[in-house]
């Protein structure tokens, strides 16, 4: 079974082709700057005869981008003999609202729900839907599956997901915490038993997905019970360019003082805040760390604020679960910044946490970075949302094929 996994952004498209159930990646690639004359398409084929390709081309929309992807997985790479060898397509969809606690086959009703939830994720859901509709145009008979970032967090109890505002706003408009990065948190938590040799159903796990976007999730007995992102991906910890938690009164004060519209204010919080806003340099932790090492006071301040806010959420979730057994780090920064992990763990020794400094600095891949005597197991688990999407797609499509037979 060959499953194509797509992650469509507003002007980008990332893809991987999996051979299932072996879970082998045949080709992975991405297209940036869709809608321009100088879009960049890069892909890499896996295996002993694997190769890489980078080209600059005109791509006007996602439909053209999908045609280029299909050409890459067939003619350009030779990975498949033709598009008819694609069994199914799995899509990352950011916001599923309350309708979806599980991944689902794409139907007209599912597309309508994705469209309805676009106001909750205006930067993501419309692009996710474009990818689905583009596949319908190019491969009309191929089944598609939607895998929602919000689904994993639908296990949160109401006292955790509701906001302390008039209840009627939840009844009328479903104003509540939804959480994001659920596919990532689900994947990395599923890997914990293989590292710690304990049943996930008996563990209290705090999962830190720290990338350009960042979220912290409390996972108790295998279920998400709380998470830092809220109704939108803007709430929670400080991020690369997003502010995270703020006093709501700042909107009225800043828009009045700076003569900003509501849209301009929200753009500031989403695109010009976080590490970028404080440092004035970048939202990229690598550049922040380099500038900090060279003596940049603002980069040092941005780093310290970032670390503190992540650590504060960890502390809150220790209280929420009455303890923690496993603390895990994942995503771009979580997987690749030993300095950030060390700074966070240095302030969690009250939990009986002991970091193995050498393991934290030098090891790669899935690994434990705490000492054998540490009361909290600290681990790094590279995320693999694409594989999770491929697995869900295989499961649903296999069920569909069984029903047809």
UniProtKB/TrEMBL annotation:
Coiled coil: none annotated. ATP binds at residues 14, 209-213, 284-286, 332-336. GO terms for cellular component: cytoplasm. Its EC number is 2.7.2.1. Mg(2+). Can also accept Mn(2+). It comes from the Bacteria. Homodimer. This is Acetate kinase. It comes from Tumebacillus flagellatus. The lineage of its organism: Bacteria, Bacillati, Bacillota, Bacilli, Bacillales.
